[in-house]
Structure prediction request, 353 residues.
Amino acid sequence: MMTLLQTPLFWAMLTIAAFVLSQQAYLKLRKPVFLPPILLAIVILIAVLLLTHTDYAVYMEGGQYLHDMLGPLIVMLAVPLYQQLKHMKKHWLRIMLAVSCGSLTTVLVAWGMTVWLIGDPLISTTMVTKSITTPVAVAITNQIGGNASLASGFVIITGILGAVLIVPILKLLNMNQPATAGLSLGVCGHAIGTGRALELGETESAYAAMAMTLTATLHAILLPWLML
Amino acid sequence: MIGFLILLFFLVAGMFAQQTLSLPIPASIAGMLLLLTFLLLRGSVPQSLRQTTQFLAPWLPMFLVPVSVGIVMHKQLLADHGLMLLMILTVSLIPGVLVCAACMHIGVAAKVAAKEGNASGENDQ
Prediction:
């Protein structure tokens, strides 16, 4: 049993098993928006890690197998983006406006609140990367003097919150058109939001992928310049 | 498999471009932009790539699980500031979404208004 818990392949298998199980539960429970498969899978795996006293580093040796797939999967986002580009060309001004204003608003509010309520410069500096997709956020955090593992945590929590909350917020306002939902998910929920958008439809995922890329690129250029 | 090979090829190309030009964006984003350029020049998505995308896209969230589990590393910070941070992340999301939706909506409203003006007909919304 102890050796099994040290085997990377076991953790890779358990990650897939946890996700598939969470997906089945998600479908059985008629797709509850507050419990996307990714959230339940994370909770299950954290519980297993805590119960078996396994270090995250040991888990990640196996998790790495899946994590390494993120590279090709991000490249793959060009496909839905291309398929929707014709439609987007007509709305490029609206899209650029929504991406830049929306992402800078959420980051500015988060940064301001952190300075005001927590006051730790490391946490507030790290907070500005919260709307960037994880790999970009980690790279930029090092540039601007934040903490990379903290950044990854904020980005993930933001992504989960975005994936869970954005669609209900938009529904409440009766503004959940596919383009708006996708764009908001990409801007405010980056890769996890984009994952949620993939479940919603092609228009949503194209807008989310595009918004996530535009936000990441914009912030990658803007933040080091603003923060230094 | 050819579709997946295309993805890996553009990831490697993105890595190469990022390193040679020391781009501030990560290799995967550079690769995505290169693949996008390729698709724009080609004018269509290769059949193999379309199949790979259709198969892999629904599984994207699964590949984000390992990095997400990393939250477990920040137990102390979460104990000290967890609730406050969760509140900040939740509250700051709302103005962002509102601004996004407003920008998208203003555009739609203006476009519909223009359409109505041209056709002097009635459009819903």
In short: Residues 2-68 of chain A form one domain. The mean pLDDT of chain A is 85.
